[in-house]
Amino acid sequence: MSEKGYLQSDIVKGDKFADKAIYSITNQGKAYFKELMVSCAAGPVPLLFDFNVVITNLNKMDKADALELVSALRRSIQSSAESNEGYAREFADIPLVGRTIFEQQQLLYRALLEWLDHFEGQFLEE
């Protein structure tokens, strides 16, 4: 990043330790950062999950085995949601822009569980 002119480093003498480099962002770095932020905000929002390959192949399996995979997926999503809740509690004092990501993830976990319940009901009827 400093080779590209985005960061500037200043060497500071250490007391007991070796000298250290303190980096600061340059105007060119700020412009590049803004460019990256605009690009990310304007780009597509992919919602591709690795477990989709399981869902799309359930009809190729014995129904009982397929339903066990659905149950395993539910447990996995629930476990991830619980971990996320723990992180949200642990880091409750971080700025809003960080806390809101925990909230976003909780909403997505809930939506996935609702979707999985709906899918499982349809799959059982099929």
Please state the oligomeric state of the protein chains shown. Answer: single chain
Read across the widest sheet, the strand sequence of neighbours is 1-2
Strand content: 5-15%
Radius of gyration: 23 Å
The chain-level structural class is mainly alpha
Architecture blueprint of SSEs:
Blueprint: E1 7-12, E2 20-25, H1 27-42, H2 52-56, H3 63-90, H4 96-125
Antiparallel strand pairs: 1-2
Helix pairs in contact: 3-4
Describe what you observe in this structure.
This is PadR family transcriptional regulator. It is a single chain. With 126 residues, the chain is mainly alpha-helical. The chain folds into 2 domains: 41 residues, no CATH class; 76 residues. 63% of the residues lie in helices and 10% in strands. It has 4 helices and 2 strands, in the order ββαααα. Helix 3 packs antiparallel against helix 4. The mean pLDDT is 95.
